[in-house]
């Protein structure tokens, strides 16, 4: 072998070593980034964890729910966080029942002015429960109102909601008709036109909160809130946002409170990885507007309420469908 060939072989070996070293460095950087992202997500999500005074198990359950094997429920509370006293009221209340085995979800919006019995406080609007006893009393009130166990909860304030919507790049909604709503920031008018619109955080909050201009009142408002939740989930799971999950998780950790553990969330997500949010079954409660002592309340229709309660119970496997029908018959007989 002559000198030229020897030099060429040495040059090839040096080049190969550099390529191997570069590959190792790139793989190491990717591993470090992945590790940092996982740590950031876990740390941020852990910051939002807050257990209930009762512990994990609802008093309406005999044992703690197995989250990947049994249907469970979650109460989603949107909180007015502009109160000068530091304790706002629930501006929106939604109950989700989730079946991880059959991959089905039901979503119920409860009108904020619904007349209910707040445990230990007496009759009042359901959104006053949070001001009187925060998340624990709100959960107890919803459990009594719907007669179902509430296994998990999530609270988010106006500020946090807007930050998260902005972080995921806004959401797309289908505006049902032209209207405007005042901004919660400077009270300026935000205009919405019928058809598809892309909304930032401030606009999405105004869209979800408007009630007075909606001919359907709370029912139209509740449907828009459900639409916003669905749109946010779709956007959150988009490939673009999965690449910046650490930043999104930080915003969630700073603004959301929940008793849903990171490990549970990941386990449930794996069950619903091919889930289409358009298949979420949306429920509502009908009723009438009433006034007692000059104060406005929404009074749920007893027959409709019983049907909704039975649907949620059946989805949670809390009762059989035969019991559901008998309950409705009993209410009809009373009326």
Principal-axes shape call: globular
| Main sheet specs | 6 strands, mixed
End-to-end CA span = 105 Å
CATH architecture: 3-Layer(aba) Sandwich
Determine the CATH topology. Answer: Aminopeptidase
Brief summary:
This protein is α+β, with helices and mostly antiparallel strands.
Question: What are the SSEs and their pairings?
Answer:
Blueprint (H helix, E strand, L loop, with lengths): L2 H45 L24 E8 L10 E10 L4 E7 L4 E4 L3 E4 L3 H18 L5 E6 H10 L3 E5 L3 E4 L6 E4 L2 E5 L1 H9 L8 H19 L2 H4 L2 H11 E3 L3 H10 L9 E3 L3 E6 L2 E6 L1 H14 L5 H14 L1
Parallel strand pairs: 1-6, 3-12
Antiparallel strand pairs: 1-2, 2-3, 4-5, 6-11, 7-10, 8-9, 13-14
Helix pairs in contact: 1-7, 3-4, 3-7, 4-5, 9-10
Descriptive account of the structure:
This protein has helices spanning about 5-45, 130-145, 160-165, 200-210, 220-235, 240, 245-255, 260-270, 300-315, 320-335, and strands at about 70-80, 90-100, 105-110, 115-120, 120-125, 150-155, 170-175, 180, 190, 195-200, 255-260, 280-285, 285-290, 295-300. It is α+β, with helices and mostly antiparallel strands and about 325 residues long. The strands form five sheets. Strands 11-6-1-2-3-12 form a six-stranded mixed beta sheet, with helices on both faces. Residues about 30-40 and about 320-325 have low confidence and may be disordered. Strand 2 (about 90-100) and strand 3 form a beta hairpin. The protein has a single domain (about 50-335), classed as LCP protein (Aminopeptidase, 3-Layer(aba) Sandwich). It is globular. It is built from ten helices and 14 strands.
């Amino acid at each position: 072998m002559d000198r030229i060939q020897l030099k060429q072989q040495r040059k090839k070996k040096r080049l190969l070593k550099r390529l191997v070293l570069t590959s190792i460095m790139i793989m190491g950087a990717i591993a470090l980034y992945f590790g940092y992202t996982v740590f950031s997500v876990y740390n941020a999500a852990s910051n939002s964890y807050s257990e209930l005074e009762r512990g994990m198990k609802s008093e309406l359950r005999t044992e703690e729910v197995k989250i990947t094997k049994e249907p469970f429920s979650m109460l989603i509370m949107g909180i007015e966080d502009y109160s000068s006293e530091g304790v706002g009221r629930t501006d929106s209340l939604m109950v989700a029942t989730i079946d991880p085995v059959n991959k089905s979800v039901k979503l119920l919006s409860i009108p904020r002015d619904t007349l209910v019995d707040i445990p230990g406080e007496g009759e009042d609007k359901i959104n006053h429960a949070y001001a009187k006893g925060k998340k624990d009393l709100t959960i107890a009130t919803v459990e009594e109102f719907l007669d179902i166990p509430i296994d998990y909860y999530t609270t988010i304030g106006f500020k946090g909601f807007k930050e998260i919507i902005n972080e995921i790049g806004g959401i797309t909604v289908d505006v049902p008709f032209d209207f405007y709503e005042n901004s919660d920031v400077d009270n300026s008018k935000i205009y919405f036109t019928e058809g598809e619109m892309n909304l930032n955080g401030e606009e999405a909050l105004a869209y979800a909160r408007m009630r007075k201009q909606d001919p359907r009142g709370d029912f139209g408002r509740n449907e828009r809130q459900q639409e916003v939740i669905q749109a946010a989930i779709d956007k959150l799971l988009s490939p673009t946002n999965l690449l910046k999950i650490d930043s999104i998780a930080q915003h969630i950790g700073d603004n959301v409170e929940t008793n849903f553990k990171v490990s549970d969330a990941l386990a449930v997500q794996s069950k619903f990885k091919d889930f289409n949010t358009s298949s979420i079954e949306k429920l509502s409660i009908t009723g009438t507007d009433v006034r007692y002592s000059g104060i406005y309340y929404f009074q749920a229709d007893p027959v409709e309420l019983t049907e909704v309660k039975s649907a949620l119970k059946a989805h949670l496997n809390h009762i059989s469908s035969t019991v559901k029908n008998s309950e409705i018959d009993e209410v009809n007989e009373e009326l």
